[in-house]
Amino acid sequence: GENVEQHPSTLSVQEGDSAVIKCTYSDSASNYFPWYKQELGKRPQLIIDIRSNVGEKKDQRIAVTLNKTAKHFSLHITETQPEDSAVYFCAASGTGTASKLTFGTGTRLQVTL
Amino acid sequence: EPEVTQTPSHQVTQMGQEVILRCVPISNHLYFYWYRQILGQKVEFLVSFYNNEISEKSEIFDDQFSVERPDGSNFTLKIRSTKLEDSAMYFCASGEWETQYFGPGTRLLVL
Fold first, then answer.
1. Per-residue model confidence as pLDDT tens for chain A (113 residues)
2. Quick check: B45 and A101 CB within 8 A?
3. Given A43, A93, A95, which is nearest B103 (Cβ)?
4. Contact A43 B102 (CB under 8 A)
5. Which of A50, A67, B40, B76 is least crowded, fewest Cβ atoms below 10 Å from its Cβ?
6. Which DSSP letter does residue A94 get?
7. Which of B98, B106, B109 to substitute to test the interface with A, most A CBs within 10 Å?
Protein backbone atom coordinates (compact mmCIF):
# COMPACT_ATOMS: atom_id res chain seq x y z
CA GLY A 1 0.00 0.00 0.00
CA GLU A 2 0.85 3.67 -0.13
CA ASN A 3 3.37 5.13 2.32
CA VAL A 4 3.82 8.88 2.75
CA GLU A 5 6.86 10.34 4.46
CA GLN A 6 6.86 13.96 5.64
CA HIS A 7 9.68 16.25 6.75
CA PRO A 8 10.45 18.10 8.90
CA SER A 9 8.40 17.08 11.91
CA THR A 10 8.76 20.56 13.40
CA LEU A 11 9.55 23.86 11.77
CA SER A 12 10.02 27.23 13.38
CA VAL A 13 10.22 30.36 11.24
CA GLN A 14 10.07 34.06 11.91
CA GLU A 15 7.06 36.02 10.78
CA GLY A 16 7.51 37.06 7.16
CA ASP A 17 9.87 34.21 6.29
CA SER A 18 8.99 31.31 4.02
CA ALA A 19 8.28 27.76 5.13
CA VAL A 20 8.73 24.60 3.08
CA ILE A 21 7.39 21.17 3.97
CA LYS A 22 8.31 18.13 1.92
CA CYS A 23 6.63 14.79 1.33
CA THR A 24 7.46 11.66 -0.59
CA TYR A 25 5.11 8.87 -1.55
CA SER A 26 5.68 5.29 -2.61
CA ASP A 27 2.81 4.31 -4.90
CA SER A 28 3.26 5.53 -8.47
CA ALA A 29 -0.50 5.07 -9.01
CA SER A 30 -1.27 7.92 -6.60
CA ASN A 31 -2.34 11.01 -8.49
CA TYR A 32 -4.06 13.31 -6.01
CA PHE A 33 -2.11 15.16 -3.32
CA PRO A 34 -3.93 17.42 -0.83
CA TRP A 35 -2.52 19.40 2.05
CA TYR A 36 -4.43 19.88 5.29
CA LYS A 37 -3.92 22.36 8.10
CA GLN A 38 -4.95 21.26 11.56
CA GLU A 39 -5.13 23.64 14.48
CA LEU A 40 -5.12 22.21 17.98
CA GLY A 41 -8.29 20.24 18.65
CA LYS A 42 -9.81 21.14 15.30
CA ARG A 43 -10.65 19.31 12.09
CA PRO A 44 -8.09 18.91 9.28
CA GLN A 45 -8.84 21.74 6.88
CA LEU A 46 -8.02 21.40 3.19
CA ILE A 47 -5.80 24.31 2.15
CA ILE A 48 -4.57 23.30 -1.29
CA ASP A 49 -4.39 20.23 -3.50
CA ILE A 50 -2.69 19.18 -6.71
CA ARG A 51 -3.36 16.51 -9.27
CA SER A 52 -0.73 14.58 -11.14
CA ASN A 53 -1.26 16.32 -14.47
CA VAL A 54 -0.03 19.58 -12.93
CA GLY A 55 3.47 20.42 -11.68
CA GLU A 56 2.66 23.45 -9.59
CA LYS A 57 -0.35 25.21 -8.14
CA LYS A 58 -0.54 28.48 -6.26
CA ASP A 59 -3.18 30.12 -4.10
CA GLN A 60 -2.12 33.47 -2.68
CA ARG A 61 0.68 32.77 -0.17
CA ILE A 62 0.47 29.01 -0.55
CA ALA A 63 1.94 26.91 -3.35
CA VAL A 64 2.40 23.23 -3.94
CA THR A 65 4.84 21.58 -6.31
CA LEU A 66 4.79 17.99 -7.55
CA ASN A 67 7.55 15.90 -9.08
CA LYS A 68 5.94 12.66 -10.22
CA THR A 69 9.20 11.15 -11.39
CA ALA A 70 10.76 11.55 -7.96
CA LYS A 71 7.45 10.88 -6.18
CA HIS A 72 7.91 14.07 -4.24
CA PHE A 73 5.65 17.03 -3.45
CA SER A 74 6.13 20.12 -1.35
CA LEU A 75 4.14 22.87 0.34
CA HIS A 76 5.51 26.40 0.24
CA ILE A 77 4.13 29.16 2.46
CA THR A 78 5.47 32.65 1.83
CA GLU A 79 5.25 35.71 4.09
CA THR A 80 4.29 33.57 7.05
CA GLN A 81 1.99 34.99 9.70
CA PRO A 82 1.35 33.87 13.31
CA GLU A 83 -2.02 32.44 12.23
CA ASP A 84 -0.17 30.02 9.96
CA SER A 85 1.01 28.22 13.11
CA ALA A 86 -0.56 24.74 13.05
CA VAL A 87 0.18 21.14 12.13
CA TYR A 88 0.28 20.55 8.39
CA PHE A 89 -0.39 17.13 6.88
CA CYS A 90 0.30 16.01 3.34
CA ALA A 91 -1.67 13.13 1.88
CA ALA A 92 -1.87 11.02 -1.24
CA SER A 93 -4.59 9.03 -2.94
CA GLY A 94 -5.61 7.51 -6.23
CA THR A 95 -8.67 8.70 -8.08
CA GLY A 96 -10.76 5.59 -8.00
CA THR A 97 -14.18 5.46 -6.39
CA ALA A 98 -13.96 6.65 -2.78
CA SER A 99 -10.17 6.52 -2.74
CA LYS A 100 -8.71 6.71 0.74
CA LEU A 101 -6.22 9.36 1.79
CA THR A 102 -2.88 8.17 3.16
CA PHE A 103 -1.49 10.87 5.41
CA GLY A 104 2.03 11.89 6.27
CA THR A 105 3.10 12.18 9.89
CA GLY A 106 2.59 15.94 10.06
CA THR A 107 4.73 19.05 10.45
CA ARG A 108 4.24 21.37 13.39
CA LEU A 109 4.85 24.88 12.07
CA GLN A 110 5.53 27.62 14.58
CA VAL A 111 5.64 31.18 13.29
CA THR A 112 7.31 33.47 15.80
CA LEU A 113 7.07 37.24 16.02
CA GLU B 1 -20.53 27.24 3.20
CA PRO B 2 -21.78 23.72 4.00
CA GLU B 3 -19.72 21.65 6.41
CA VAL B 4 -19.61 18.10 7.65
CA THR B 5 -21.04 17.85 11.16
CA GLN B 6 -20.49 15.16 13.81
CA THR B 7 -22.08 14.23 17.10
CA PRO B 8 -21.25 13.88 19.88
CA SER B 9 -18.15 16.05 20.16
CA HIS B 10 -16.93 13.97 23.12
CA GLN B 11 -17.82 10.47 24.27
CA VAL B 12 -16.57 8.66 27.35
CA THR B 13 -17.38 4.97 27.61
CA GLN B 14 -16.41 1.89 29.55
CA MET B 15 -14.35 -0.83 27.91
CA GLY B 16 -16.63 -3.40 26.29
CA GLN B 17 -19.48 -0.98 25.69
CA GLU B 18 -20.90 -0.14 22.30
CA VAL B 19 -20.64 3.36 20.88
CA ILE B 20 -22.21 4.96 17.84
CA LEU B 21 -20.62 7.99 16.29
CA ARG B 22 -22.79 10.09 14.00
CA CYS B 23 -21.99 12.20 11.00
CA VAL B 24 -23.97 14.37 8.62
CA PRO B 25 -22.01 14.67 5.37
CA ILE B 26 -22.31 17.60 2.98
CA SER B 27 -25.61 17.07 1.22
CA ASN B 28 -24.60 16.57 -2.41
CA HIS B 29 -21.55 14.42 -1.66
CA LEU B 30 -21.47 10.79 -2.72
CA TYR B 31 -18.39 9.44 -0.95
CA PHE B 32 -18.11 9.03 2.79
CA TYR B 33 -15.20 8.13 5.01
CA TRP B 34 -14.19 7.50 8.58
CA TYR B 35 -10.68 8.23 9.83
CA ARG B 36 -9.19 8.22 13.29
CA GLN B 37 -6.35 10.13 14.90
CA ILE B 38 -4.69 8.94 18.07
CA LEU B 39 -3.47 11.89 20.10
CA GLY B 40 -0.34 13.40 18.58
CA GLN B 41 -0.28 11.03 15.63
CA LYS B 42 -1.27 11.16 11.99
CA VAL B 43 -4.75 10.66 10.60
CA GLU B 44 -5.44 7.01 9.71
CA PHE B 45 -8.00 5.71 7.24
CA LEU B 46 -10.67 3.35 8.56
CA VAL B 47 -13.31 2.88 5.88
CA SER B 48 -14.81 4.39 2.76
CA PHE B 49 -18.44 4.11 1.68
CA TYR B 50 -20.11 4.67 -1.65
CA ASN B 51 -23.43 3.67 -3.16
CA ASN B 52 -24.62 2.19 0.14
CA GLU B 53 -21.73 -0.18 0.54
CA ILE B 54 -18.19 -0.28 1.84
CA SER B 55 -15.65 0.53 -0.87
CA GLU B 56 -12.51 -0.12 1.12
CA LYS B 57 -11.52 -0.77 4.71
CA SER B 58 -8.23 -0.78 6.55
CA GLU B 59 -6.76 -3.42 8.84
CA ILE B 60 -7.96 -1.33 11.79
CA PHE B 61 -11.57 -1.76 10.67
CA ASP B 62 -12.11 -5.23 12.07
CA ASP B 63 -15.33 -7.07 12.96
CA GLN B 64 -15.91 -4.74 15.92
CA PHE B 65 -16.54 -1.85 13.54
CA SER B 66 -19.47 -1.26 11.24
CA VAL B 67 -20.82 1.64 9.22
CA GLU B 68 -24.31 2.48 8.14
CA ARG B 69 -26.16 5.13 6.23
CA PRO B 70 -29.57 4.68 7.87
CA ASP B 71 -31.25 7.51 5.98
CA GLY B 72 -30.48 10.11 3.34
CA SER B 73 -28.42 12.31 5.63
CA ASN B 74 -26.72 10.41 8.44
CA PHE B 75 -23.62 8.24 8.29
CA THR B 76 -22.72 6.29 11.41
CA LEU B 77 -19.74 4.39 12.78
CA LYS B 78 -20.46 1.74 15.38
CA ILE B 79 -17.87 0.12 17.61
CA ARG B 80 -19.48 -2.95 19.17
CA SER B 81 -17.18 -3.67 22.09
CA THR B 82 -14.77 -0.85 22.73
CA LYS B 83 -11.17 -1.43 23.77
CA LEU B 84 -8.79 0.95 25.51
CA GLU B 85 -6.85 1.35 22.25
CA ASP B 86 -9.95 2.65 20.49
CA SER B 87 -9.46 5.93 22.35
CA ALA B 88 -8.87 8.50 19.61
CA MET B 89 -10.42 11.34 17.67
CA TYR B 90 -12.73 9.98 14.99
CA PHE B 91 -13.26 12.10 11.90
CA CYS B 92 -15.94 11.68 9.31
CA ALA B 93 -15.25 13.05 5.83
CA SER B 94 -17.28 13.41 2.69
CA GLY B 95 -16.47 14.27 -0.90
CA GLU B 96 -17.68 14.50 -4.47
CA TRP B 97 -14.63 12.82 -5.98
CA GLU B 98 -11.05 12.94 -4.68
CA THR B 99 -11.48 16.02 -2.50
CA GLN B 100 -12.46 15.20 1.06
CA TYR B 101 -13.85 17.57 3.66
CA PHE B 102 -13.55 16.64 7.30
CA GLY B 103 -15.98 17.03 10.16
CA PRO B 104 -14.96 18.45 13.55
CA GLY B 105 -14.44 14.99 15.02
CA THR B 106 -15.65 12.98 18.00
CA ARG B 107 -13.16 12.51 20.78
CA LEU B 108 -13.69 9.00 22.15
CA LEU B 109 -12.23 8.03 25.48
CA VAL B 110 -12.47 4.38 26.55
CA LEU B 111 -11.90 3.74 30.25
1. 899 999 999 999 999 999 999 999 999 999 999 999 999 989 999 999 999 888 999 999 999 999 999 999 999 999 999 999 999 999 999 866 678 999 999 999 999 99
2. yes
3. A43
4. yes
5. B40
6. -
7. B98
